[in-house]
């Protein structure tokens, strides 16, 4: 403001400084506003008052620390201590809950930085393993990706991705690839995409985060896990909590289902057939079903020849003309008569 030639009064500066002070100076601000005339109170006087108050606080803190050292106890007067991490009063940086909470995710951030080294780490809960089975998938909120140790369940598989997953106890397991798995439940058939193949894992895991990214809504309530369609709010799967506080989703023979889905995909890869199955659904609608993996075995939709039935069925009668083709311009040029 001074650069543009405007003169700033001391009163304006004093008022602005008083408004911007931290809460520990609140009683000083109140005292100055009540006892001083701000129109005559200069900026130099204000700075002197604030410096005197701050030195008084520092002397008080030094005395408390000396007493604590003499008696071998920790000072309990933390009201004036400001944390250098979250900038709040009442605790120090070492006791900052925000700093300690973020420290829990330090390992995950370090894993994301290792992408350039050809190694990536994902975290998952250490669930006790009894025997590999494809009929049980555990819903896990601590798991980064869907995982399984059974390679035959994949209906599509890609060995290009080589990662590592880290267990809760620090043990690392190798990821040998990822792919698509089709599962059949009591509530219908579902497709799981980007499922990681971990040969040494003894159980199947469904990642809550990955389910949410796929368009599902997850609700844990009243001893059960509900998986809903995010758009329609319809419950797709309900998994009850066991006595060990886990949520196992039981599926119906995932291996046979995966093989059936693969056979369907190879033998019935016919866009015209899917067009007829869905009652002459348009190409845009079929492509949307394919993109969202909403139909088991539906491959990429290609161009379909013009359907003669749809052409005739969707035709409409030509509308009547809005006006007459011509109008009479002379007498007796147009005559209406009853025969």
From TrEMBL:
Xref: Gene3D superfamilies: Zinc finger, CCHC-type (4.10.60.10)
Alphabetized GO MF terms: nucleic acid binding; zinc ion binding
UniProt superkingdom: Eukaryota
Retrovirus-related Pol polyprotein from transposon TNT 1-94-like beta-barrel domain: residues covered: 137-216
One Pfam family of this chain: Pol_BBD
Domain GAG-pre-integrase, residue spans: 251-315
Stated name of the protein: Gag-pol polyprotein, identical
Species of origin: Cucumis melo var. makuwa
């Amino acid at each position: 403001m001074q650069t543009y030639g405007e003169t700033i009064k001391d009163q304006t500066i004093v008022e602005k400084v008083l408004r911007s002070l931290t809460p520990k100076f609140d009683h000083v601000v109140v005292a100055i506003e009540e006892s001083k005339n701000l129109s005559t109170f200069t900026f130099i006087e204000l700075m002197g008052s604030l410096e005197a108050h701050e030195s008084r606080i520092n002397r008080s803190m030094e005395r408390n620390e000396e007493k604590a050292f003499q008696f071998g106890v920790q000072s309990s007067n933390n009201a004036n201590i400001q944390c250098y991490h979250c900038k709040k009063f009442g605790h120090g940086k070492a006791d900052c809950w925000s700093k300690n909470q973020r420290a829990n995710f330090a390992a995950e951030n370090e894993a994301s930085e290792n992408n350039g080294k050809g190694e990536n780490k994902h975290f998952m809960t250490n669930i006790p393993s009894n025997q590999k089975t494809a009929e049980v998938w555990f819903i896990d909120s601590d798991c980064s990706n869907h995982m399984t140790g059974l390679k035959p369940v994949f209906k599509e598989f890609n060995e290009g991705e080589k990662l590592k997953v880290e267990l809760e106890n620090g043990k690392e397991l190798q990821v040998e690839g990822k792919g698509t798995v089709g599962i059949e439940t009591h509530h219908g058939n579902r497709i799981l995409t980007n499922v990681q193949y971990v040969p040494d894992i003894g159980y199947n895991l469904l990642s809550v985060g990955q389910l949410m990214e796929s368009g599902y809504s997850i609700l844990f309530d009243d001893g059960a896990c509900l998986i809903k369609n995010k758009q329609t709010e319809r419950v797709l799967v309900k998994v009850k909590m066991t006595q060990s506080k886990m949520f196992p989703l039981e599926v119906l023979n995932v291996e046979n289902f995966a093989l059936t889905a693969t056979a369907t995909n190879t033998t019935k890869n016919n866009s015209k057939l899917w067009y007829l199955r869905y009652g002459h659904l348009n190409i845009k609608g079929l492509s949307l079903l394919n993109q969202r993996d909403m139909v088991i075995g539906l491959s990429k939709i290609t161009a379909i020849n013009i359907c003669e039935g749809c052409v005739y069925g969707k035709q409409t009668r030509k509308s009547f003309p809005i006006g007459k083709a011509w109008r009479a311009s002379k007498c007796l040029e147009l005559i209406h008569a009853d025969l």
